[in-house]
Amino acid sequence: xxxxxxxxxxxxxxxxxxxxxxxxxxxxxxxxxxxxxxxxxxxxxxxxxxxxxxxxxxxxxxxxxxxxxxxxxxxxxxxxxxxxxxxxxxxxxxxxxxxxxxxxxxxxxxxxxxxxxxxxxxxxxxxxxxxxxxxxxxxxxxxxxxxxxxxxxxxxxxxxxxxxxxxxxxxxxxxxxxxxxxxxxxxxxxxxxxxxxxxxxxxxxxxxxxxxxxxxxxxxxxxxxxxxxxxxxxxxxxxxxxxxxxxxxxxxxxxxxxxxxxxxxxxxxxxxxxxxxxxxxxxxxxxxxxxxxxxxxxxxxxxxxxxxxxxxxxxxxxxxxxxxxxxxxxxxxxxxxxxxxxxxxxxxxxxxxxxxxxxxxxxxxxxxxxxxxxxxxxxxxxxxxxxxxxxxxxxxx
Length: 397
Ligand SMILES: *Cc1c(COP(=O)(O)O)cnc(C)c1O
Description:
Bound molecules: pyridoxal-5'-phosphate
Number of strands: 13
Structural class: alpha/beta
Helix content: 40-55%
Distance between the termini: 61 Å
Oligomer: single chain
CATH topology of the largest domain: Aspartate Aminotransferase, domain 2
């Protein structure tokens, strides 16, 4: 009898990461997700959440979730296509379609499921995907699942994207041009107007992932299509309910027939249970707040400008960011993780991000300010960043 552990290779890999300083620990949140929150037994300034508008623990969302839970229960009991479509799910889809100014909407369990499920459902191996090099992992996985041919263009290079479409003009199959609206690790905005034009010229399907733009860009947070005035010209808009909306889920907006098709063919919709009613109710409350309290978005952008100025003046390289996502470029992954640990010890949570989330050699600390940070918190965060970076030789002292 042999006792060799067939998973031993995983332990070996982990040991390599540990020794290379690229094995970050999971920080455990012991309070609500607030601008100053308790992680691993310590109160720290939280620059690591996607809770842009502070809705994750907003009293109105909590109240809505509790009320719906009492009325409809803790779970939905089935996948959407069997018996797990509740009236509150339909109400949320209608609400989002109206918000986005599209015919229809389908809600998925997460933004990841929305992207992966949609791309895989609408394409076949005959088809072509033209995709930005920095698109989110859920898009990449959807592309792979579709088995369509994948053509990656350099980040935001609209000429390169148009050239690929030109080269494919006599090729068989459908073409899908796909980009993030806001790129999650760099905080830059996708070049939508030029991409939409290229897609229209070549009859390609245009799809945008607005995970980091919904609730952040456009009127009342309607996203990048609204920001650029491209209503009616983007076939598929994906968004998430897990970031600015503060809860959990993803959605796809588009034509009625696109949504009817996804209801019948998107695999996460068919094969994974729908949201608990409390989730849908909290999301509905969040959309109401987007309409009623646009000042939250103004505060988010005020804080963004203030914090970016502070870290830029301190001498940090923040890359090409144009949104509340402000990366602080470090380069080496080991240094980025050590920097993050040093920051935590000094009272600031900002995550070190390395390969495979960003390319090798492009490791960074990622910061995200929210509408609920005060000026004092942001001043203190900039001070901790500067002091820690100087003590570690990341900034010249
Ligand atoms: C976070 C993110 C997603 C996934 O959204 P979830 O709701 O967290 O699954 C998809 N696309 C982009 C660009 C993201 O940043």
